[in-house]
Amino acid sequence: MSLAAFLCMTVGLPVVQGSADHVRWDIINFNAATTPPTVSAGGFAIAAARNPSTLTIKLTGSGTFIGPASGGTSSSATGGGTWQTFSDTTSTGSGTYEVRELLSWQFANFQTPSIIDLIDDGTGANGNAVLRIEYSDGSNGVLGVGCHGPGALGGIVEGVIATKDFVTYWDAQAPAGVVNANRTSFHVR
After folding, report:
1. Cβ atoms within 10 Å of 93's Cβ, excluding its own
2. Which of 79, 113, 152, 168 could connect to 99 by a Cys-Cys bridge, CB 3.0–4.6 Å?
3. CB atoms < 10 A from the CB of 153, how many?
4. % residues pLDDT > 70 (the chain)
5. 5 pLDDT band (50/70/90 cuts)?
6. Using one digit for the tens of pLDDT, what is the confidence trace for 82-107?
7. Domain spans of the chain, in order of start
């Protein structure tokens, strides 16, 4: 680990980087029964629309992208997962989605090492990414992934937001205590 990475992890300072970030993102499983808690790939997260707030989307997923040093977009983005939409508790559709493009990557800081990480050897990171996605039913949308992990700076949402055509699932459902839902992870190489 570099001195810069170590200082950012222990002091919580953001890093000014001059090269592209190679990033893995995941919607994760969280196991609070271990000490320290364990994270692994394969969880789910939910976001809600407004007007009415009974519309929700449940997502799973993971992928990779290259975040350009310029902060711009990147077609070097892969991954996807499953989706299911609801009106109240009634399912209104389901399928898969594929990531088509990175629209934005905002690195905040490296995470403090306080969990057992079974996902990736890269360094855990806090921040947010916005990805252009295509749903299996032909609709298009945007997936926002926010990670407010150990040592995160203030103002970062934990969880996901999404659009599916015109419906905006803008309210990320927050993780609650030891409940295994609504958690995400980034790993930077």
Report:
1. 15
2. 79
3. 13
4. 90
5. very low
6. 999 999 999 999 999 999 999 999 99
7. 3-188
Quote the CA–CA distance of 184 and 2 in Å, as a whole number. Answer: 25
Is residue 150 within 8 Å of residue 45, measured between CB atoms?
Answer: no
Give the Cα separation of 36 and 114 in Å (integer). Answer: 7
Provide CB contacts within 8 A for 16, sequence distance 6+: none
Q: How far is CA 14 from CA 89, 113, 153, in A?
A: 41, 16, 9
* Other Cβ atoms closer than 10 A to 78: 14
Q: Burial code of 19-40, b = ≥16 C-beta within 10 A, e = fewer?
A: eebebbbbbbbbeeeeeeebbe
Cα–Cα distance measured from residue 54 to residue 113, given in angstroms and rounded to the nearest whole number: 37
In order, the DSSP letters of the chain are: --HHHHHHHHH------SS-EEEEEEEEEEETTSSS-EEEE---EEEE-SSSTTEEEEE--EEEEEE-TT---BS-EEEEEEEEEEETTEEEEEEEEEEEEEEEEEEEEEPPS-SEE-S-SSEEEEEEEEEEEEETTS-EEEEEEEE--TTPPTT---EEEEEETTEEE-EEPPP-TT-S-S-EEEEE-
Quote the CA–CA distance of 114 and 52 in Å, as a whole number. 39
Q: Give CA–CA dist 78/130, Å, rounded.
A: 13
